[in-house]
Specification:
27 helices, 11 strands, single chain, about 575 residues, mainly alpha, globular
């Protein structure tokens, strides 16, 4: 008698061949604005008390393509919990994600599954299937009682029910037979109906239509072009707003065709946005923009001699602090997005209290905290998470911090350094009186090969130099006083709070958020035919008071989210012809 683990690979032979061909193609270059280019005009906001005028209709656009998007690890785990059980343990290593155009979410449409990655998925699938169909859980998943060791009708009912949720679409009768045959053959080999179902479930969990979000399109009778089908809209909508598979209500609406109807779609969007589950997606979006995956993967490391207070638990607390501020301000308070860079309200743990040098009463857990008005702490850019993430193991880095702000917060391109840099010019800091970062960085601007980019990055990062490599405040570096003053594209500031105010009013801040959110939602960069829509979204975002929920709603209801030029490979062929 064969084991379950021996039967699963045999059932997956054909699936592996199909899976190897999955994944997107194409290239992703940044569409960010070059630093120093004339900034976009700021969105016009009606004066307080003045009623807004009529809202202009969104522009007619030429939408971009669709492509298969691999589930992220967070999406995989959330989908398993929602479909098969919240208490199931998902154990194993996942294929690494790829950052394209600044976002892992865009990279999901540019990755496939390697042979070794498939083995990992198959191992995870067997572990999940064994738990889902054990004696404790099977009653909630199997909608029937088998009449014998093999029972095709009962197996078909299971595959139809569970497969519909895993594939995010209904399965046709003709699709059921291969999975039923797998269950039947495995049950005969193992002498158990539920053991056969376990093998069938494991094969469902490594099928391309589970591991990838397969988006399909159809003719749009209104525009004459292509639109996402109602079924495809359900997955795109749910993974954008909840970061998980569609729930029963959304999937049923999709099957009725509701999600290609303006009013019925809007009703579902409002339902999802009103749910506490939208917090998960907002966390994932900002974690992606801020590069917090490096924290999760343990890649933020510090010299223990220089920074003895640093630990993995500390940096995880720091990440959580920033995300709590984001959620509290943007969702709980429905606040102005720009104020993220000036707010003094935060949260603390005992561990973080050591870094920030503030008292924390709560022994275990979180408590609200507000920095005083005369503090150098204001806005998320003064959080330990971003300060430590964008520093070297042994000291701070104005260059890394400035580069992050230019690229992630303002969506401006910073070219990579030339390959012929002579790094000896930066050596022997003490002999050249470079005791502070400002002194050391003078060598950057003295070199013609370096000055162009470093003039864009370094002055921004120098405003944060009163915080060291893990974010602890300081007055001096190597005994010399720190000068945090500078200017951002013509706006002067004296310190880190001043930098936060300058960024909050920067004309690239809002366009950058809008573009990043659209990229995150559709899994690709905007195409030229959608640029006018981005400007329209920026204006509506301003009229809403820069409220994130309103912007998310606008994005979902826009043609960039709902319409398409077709599959990416087909669209590329058309563009070349």
């Amino acid at each position: 008698m064969k084991s379950r683990s021996a039967l699963v690979p045999a059932a997956l032979g054909l699936l592996l061949a199909v899976l190897a061909s999955c994944g997107g193609s194409g290239s992703g270059g940044s569409t960010g604005a070059p630093p120093g280019a004339p900034p976009d005009a700021p969105p016009a906001v009606p004066p307080p008390g003045e009623p807004p005028g009529p809202v202009p209709d969104p522009p007619v656009i030429e939408p971009g393509p669709i492509a298969m998007r691999r589930l992220t690890e967070a999406q995989y785990r959330a989908t398993i919990a929602d479909v098969l059980g919240e208490d199931l343990v998902v154990a194993g290593r996942f294929e690494p994600d790829s950052r394209v155009a600044g976002l892992l979410a865009v990279g999901t449409s540019h990755v496939s599954v390697t042979p070794s990655g498939f083995e990992q998925y198959e191992s995870i699938a067997r572990g999940v299937a064994a738990q889902a169909l054990d004696a404790e859980h099977r009653a909630t998943l199997v909608p029937c009682t088998p009449t014998d060791t093999t029972d095709d009708a009962c197996a078909a009912a299971f595959v139809r029910t569970v497969g519909r949720r895993l594939f995010r679409r209904p399965l046709a009768d003709s699709e059921l037979e291969p999975w039923v045959a797998i269950a039947r053959d495995a049950a005969s080999e193992l002498g158990s109906f539920h053991a056969g179902l376990e093998v069938a479930l494991a094969t469902l969990l490594v099928a391309p239509e589970f591991l990838f979000r397969v988006e399909t399109s159809e003719h749009d009778p209104v525009s004459g072009g292509e639109r996402l089908t109602s079924i495809a809209m359900a997955s795109r909508l749910s993974y954008f707003l909840w970061n998980t598979a569609p729930d029963e209500e959304l999937l049923a609406a999709a099957e009725r065709g509701d999600l290609v109807d303006d009013e019925l779609l809007a009703a579902q969007v409002d339902r999802l946005l009103a749910s506490p589950r939208v917090e998960t997606s907002v966390r994932e979006f900002f974690s992606d923009v801020y590069g917090f995956d490096a924290i999760d993967e343990g890649l933020v490391r510090k010299d223990p001699v220089i920074f003895p207070a640093f630990s993995q638990d500390l940096i995880l607390d720091a990440k959580e602090q920033t995300l709590r501020v984001v959620i509290e301000h943007l969702l709980a308070e429905d606040g102005d997005y720009r104020e993220l860079f000036t707010t003094r309200r935060s949260f603390m743990t005992r561990r973080l209290g050591l870094v920030y040098r503030v008292p924390v009463r709560t022994a275990d857990g979180w408590e609200p905290f507000e920095f005083p008005e005369d503090s150098r702490r204001a806005g998320i850019l003064t959080h330990a998470s971003l300060l430590a993430l964008h520093s070297h193991p042994g000291r701070s880095s104005p260059t890394l911090r400035g580069k992050f702000i230019r690229e992630a917060i303002l969506c401006q391109d910073v070219p990579p350094p030339p390959g012929n840099i002579d790094f000896s010019m930066f050596a022997d800091d003490a002999a050249q009186n470079r005791s502070t970062a400002r002194g050391r960085l003078e060598a950057h601007v003295a070199s013609p090969a370096c000055a162009g980019c470093h003039n864009l990055m370094d002055p921004i990062g120098l405003a944060l130099e009163n915080m060291d490599g893990i974010g602890t405040e300081r007055e001096t570096e190597n005994g010399s006083p720190i000068d945090p003053s500078g200017e951002l594209d013509g706006t002067p500031y004296d310190d880190a709070p001043g930098l936060g105010r300058a960024i909050a009013q920067h004309q690239r801040l809002v366009p950058c958020l809008v573009e990043s959110l659209v990229k995150y939602a559709v899994g690709r960069e905007p195409v030229p035919g959608e640029r006018e829509l981005l400007t329209w979204l920026q204006d509506r975002f301003a009229e809403s008071g820069y409220r994130l929920r309103d912007l998310m709603r606008l994005v979902v209801l826009s043609d960039a989210f709902r319409r398409t030029s077709g599959p990416r490979e087909v669209a590329a062929t058309r563009g070349a012809s």
